[in-house]
Amino acid sequence: MSDRFQNINGFKVYGFDSRTSLIAYIKENPSILIAINAEKIYAGNVELKYISQNGVGYPDGIGAVKALKTKGAKNVIRIPGSELWLDIISTLNKEDSVYFIGATNEVIQATVFKLQKTYPSLNIAGFRNGFLNDTDIALLEKDILEKKPTVVFVAQGSPRQERLMQRLQQSHKAIYMGLGGSFDVFTNKVRRAPRIFRENGLEWLFRLLTQPKRIKRQWVYIPFLINLYRDKY
């Protein structure tokens, strides 16, 4: 594993040579896991940059991998967050517990049901949907502080999920991981890109083909890749 991080357009991004290395590192250094991809790097959200400086950004997208290699990182692999969270769950011990936040009531309940069938010994400390007002957040914060889960997964979309994780971490230190739409994919509500797209770093293209409205967001890859090879980042 290379635990050296690189500064890419203000984001602190770690390079790992395997998922096992990342999981071992985060278990020794409980923090906020932040999936980094080309879109986030190029957009340069100031809030996300700040949170990444105190968390563990990892290369979720092929653009982040290329950026790390351009900066000199070696043996870096892409680690899809939509798979990593399940890898983390599979490594937990009986004394560990998890807490799930995100999606709709229907999806989060389906997620928990499927997880219980897949991992019968999984200790689920709690779960709730991702629609939170100020009162909900205060109650959630209290519940997590009381139950003290080992890992908290938050699927709300970025940067809202990172903002929530940062607040929760202030009262209870644990491994926090933002999942975006992973619960929807896990429960088959949303189709994930076929293997051929995933293995060639083209999940973004599949999302564009199946969700044409993303075109305004996906245009980001053109200037990003140009600047990437000019070592602008």
Order of helices and strands: EEHEHHEHHEHEHEHEHHHHH
Strand arrangement, largest sheet?
Answer: 4-3-8-7-5-6
Helix percent reads 40-55%
The whole-number mean of residue pLDDT values reads 88
| Low-pLDDT regions | none
Q: Tags for this entry?
A:
alpha/beta; two-stranded antiparallel sheet; six-stranded parallel sheet; about 230 residues
Can you characterise this structure?
This protein has 233 residues and is of the alpha/beta class. It folds into two domains: 1-79 and 191-233, no CATH class; 85-153 and 164-174. The chain is 49% helix and 15% strand. The protein has 13 helices and eight strands. It has helices spanning 19-28, 38-43, 46-53, 62-70, 81-90, 105-118, 134-147, 160-171, 182-186, 195-199, 203-210, 215-218, 221-229; strands spanning 5-8, 11-14, 32-36, 56-59, 98-102, 124-128, 151-155, 175-178. A six-stranded parallel sheet has the order 4-3-8-7-5-6, with helices on both faces. The protein has a two-stranded antiparallel sheet with strand order 1-2. Strand 1 and strand 2 form a beta hairpin. Helix 4 runs parallel beside helix 13 (221-229) and helix 7 crosses helix 8. The radius of gyration is 17 Å and the shape is globular. 37% of the residues are buried. The mean pLDDT is 88.
